[in-house]
UniProtKB/TrEMBL annotation:
Protein name as annotated: phosphoribosylglycinamide formyltransferase 1
NCBIfam families according to UniProt: PurN
An example Gene Ontology molecular-function term: phosphoribosylglycinamide formyltransferase activity
Keyword annotations of the record: Purine biosynthesis, Transferase
Length: 172
């Protein structure tokens, strides 16, 4: 979220962050949004209040929803209202290593290249169309933490460039 807010503060960037929503009152994104002057909202978690999320997005005239650290599955009825307008970043080169613990999955599989993927969110987890990817070499001394840190640094770049690409093509 920090990378997206910083990118959007550049007046040449074709997007802006108009609100932030979380289901976690302890989320770091709340403080990041507050410091950037972005309206932030906490919604009920169990069950996830998708109607409230939809209402907030409509109220703020959201064109693109960027998930960042949002670890809940969005249901098909919500996604159908926001078809091809919800994107996510995943710490693997999809379609490999879907779901949780992608870096651990990559290390256990013995791959030489890992990375990150920005993709459209669909009801099937980590299965939407790929928007952007960045490869990250797996080093012989890597453990989950070191690989995760290097992938995270690339996620920030990949997400910003994916948002730029999408925003430049949104027709108002």
């Amino acid at each position: 979220m920090q990378a997206l807010i910083e990118a959007c503060q550049n007046r040449n960037f074709p997007a802006e962050v108009v609100c932030a929503i979380t289901n976690n009152s302890e989320a770091a994104g709340l403080k990041i949004a507050e410091q950037a002057g972005v309206p932030a909202f906490i919604v009920r978690d169990k069950p996830l209040d998708a109607d409230k999320i939809h209402e907030i997005f409509v109220q703020h005239k959201v064109d693109l929803i960027c998930l960042a650290g949002f670890m809940r599955i969005l249901q098909a009825n919500f996604l159908s209202k926001w078809n091809n307008k919800v994107i996510n970043i995943h710490p693997s080169l999809l379609p490999s290593f879907k779901g949780l613990n992608a870096q651990e999955q990559a290390l256990k599989a013995g791959v030489k290249i890992a990375g990150c993927t920005v993709h459209y969110v669909t009801p099937e987890i980590d299965a939407g169309a790929i928007i952007a990817q960045i490869a990250v070499p797996v080093l012989p001394a890597d453990d989950i933490q070191s690989l995760s840190e290097r992938i995270l640094a690339e996620e920030h770049k990949c997400y910003v460039e994916a948002v730029r690409s999408i925003a430049e093509n949104i027709n108002y």
